[in-house]
User: What shape does this take?
Amino acid sequence: MTDFSRRQFLKYVGASTLSTLAATLTFDDLANAATATPLAPGTPILVLVTLYGGNDGLNTVVPYLDPVYQSSRPGISLSGADVLPLADGLALNATMTGFKSLWDQHKLAIVLGTSYPQPSYSHFTSMAIWQTASPVEPTTSGWIGRWLDLQAHNPFTAIGIGDVLTPLLAGNKRVGSVLPLYGLDVPGYSYGERARMLGLSSPRDTRLTATAAQSIGDLFSLASTVGPVLATAPPSGASDLAQQLDVVANLIAANVPTLVYSVTIDGFDTHADELSAQSSLVGSVSDAVTAFLAQVGATPRANDVVVMAYSEFGRRVEANDSQGTDHGTAAPLFVAGNRVAGGFYGEQPSLTSLVDGDLAVTTDFRDVYASMLADVLGADPLQIMPGWTSKLNLITTG
Amino acid sequence: MTNADRLEIARLVHRFGFGPRPGEYLALVHGGVAHARREVLRSDRDAALAKVADPHITDLGPAPSDPAASNAYWQSVWDQYMVLATWWLDRMVLADHPLVERMTWFWHGHWATSIGKVGFALPMKIQNQTLRQRALGNFSDMAREMILDGALIYWLDGEVNVVGAPNENLGREFMELFTLGVGNFTEDDVKAAARGLTGYRVVETSGRVSFESARHDHSPVRLLGTTRSFDASSLSDFVVAHDATATHITNRLWFRFVSTTVPPPRRLVKTFAKRNIVSLVHAIATDPAVRRPGLSQVKSPVEWFVSACRALRVTPSRLDSGDLHWLLGQMGQFPFDPPSVGGWPFDEAWLTASSAQYRFSLADVLVHHGNVTPLGTTASTMVQAAADWLGVAQWSERTARSLRAAVSDPRQLATLAICAPEFVVSV
Assistant: This one.
């Protein structure tokens, strides 16, 4: 989307939609029509950040003192001024100053060596495994989707920012909602009433026509609640991820009754010329999440919000000769927030005792999910991940 | 004419084509299912497409270093992209026999390559012509040409894959997504394929591919149990001949044309034994599942847009390309810009409140520019006329109620009808 065409679009909205449709409901109309109940104070909120492409864990949480790290990655290894030392020979990429300050305040948990048994090197298979939390049996339902299946239908319960549904929000019975960065606007007046009728269910519906109708119904109910929020505070931020999180912060501040938010960033598939691209990407994740927590920190919900950031896999120990890295396995995962018990969890995989040439998996991501489900959402992880009984304790309780 | 026949013909015309133009659906219904299937599967010379002028896409060469010339250069890069994209959308909308464009669109999603990384329209156009030329031909020929396609090689880092320093991206995705399917090869096969694909260079702005023997790994590798040396062509032939490729391609076509929830019948893969795409497509179109109730599929945003344009007789290149790019982009799909090498999502992923909003906006633009006379002027027949016009087997009571409320305003009725669940979904 260039500025050029966005300007044209705005011109179009002014000149065409508003005139030919007679009118669009004003945000005030919608606010008055809103019937949603505000989120009760103190309700925990989970924010999931998905990093698409396979983030290079070794250039994010850097084993900078390990000579094997330095020798394996000529030209793309980090040391000296390019790292922010934490502890145990590990350092953050120097672009991640925000995460360093969260770490210093004990609000950042870094779960080392995270993956699942026999990791897949396929972007699609591995991301599907992370989003469904089902490494062995392929399944189509996302882990938050299965949690949604246990809740009453409410288009607000889980919201993804973007244009298409992130699979983790799709359950067997219920799906989360998708909110575009620039908010929702609905047709008005008699035309709006007829459009709204298309959102009703019908006995003749198939599974998909029922979902199509539901999406129209959700459009009207979401627009009436989030429309006013976004109208008063359009998204701001240095990166697309920062803008997505800015929208989330505004919705949280407006007491929108949403318990799970999903935001995404892509571009991590750094097979070539990795150094500046990957550093800049993890820097923007760090900046965006830190700014988001600061924004929420200024509201009464400061202690309610937990952010988890993950990618589908890490990358090889050795660089390839295109100054990049190919698909790997285990990588660090981040959990941040006021209630997070900061520090390292799990074990940093050895750079020499490799499994099939790649980093060993020292933490199963389902232990992290179990903590998010049990300690943030107050759910029973067994109902969402059958048979999974272990859990990390990433959240301070009480 | 039974409702089952109406349903089957609606599926044929929406899934193997891009939906009916005014009058076509009723004519097909009157001719019966067998006739409709023959019509939908026609791929003979297309008189309407012969009149669509070839887009003027040129090699723009490297970006100028002079900042004063830079803006004009990048504007041309963007303009060529829009010209190429609207040219293709025009072809989908204007085709008399849309099967070839429909299959080209399927293959674009299969060999998903994005201009977001490739950067220039010319390599994307060359790839698009290859996919069109081979759309119903032999898959071995298509794969051999695609693995030497400049846009694809550049997209998957084949450009930097050289002897002694293999880059696995192209080889992995070639086997996982384009041919064998996940689970049918090992990590060692990925490393072997990468070595076999070394040594190809791409000129970014033109997509021209050259082979540099000195950058190629000539030594034998062990791939899928066989040890020998490969180049791109021989590697493609070898992998495509593998049984898993037949199963994977059969599954992909079934998944996009019939159902994402019900697997294809086992016999179907046999029709692809010789890698003949047209045989497989005919077998799928003739399968009893096309008639079975319940196997709905969601039209992707481009498929929905093109079917609305065909009904309304709107030519996409005459719309403002900035509006079009923004609205389809907000719905999540624009030609030549898939989100990843895995292609676009399907079914429920398109059915969000967000896409519903932009669908209403785009429907408004299309009806504003379109022709709604097929609805007639008689209030009592207008709702049924809308179903016959758009190729909808039957409206739900919900939609019929909404449309009946709008009969005094045919344009509004048309906007509602193309946003109705029964037109957004191929029921």
Summary: Residues 146-241 of chain B form one domain. The first strand of chain B starts at residue 200 and ends at 202. Residues 159 and 201 of chain B are 5 Å apart (CA to CA). The longest helix of chain B spans residues 67-94.
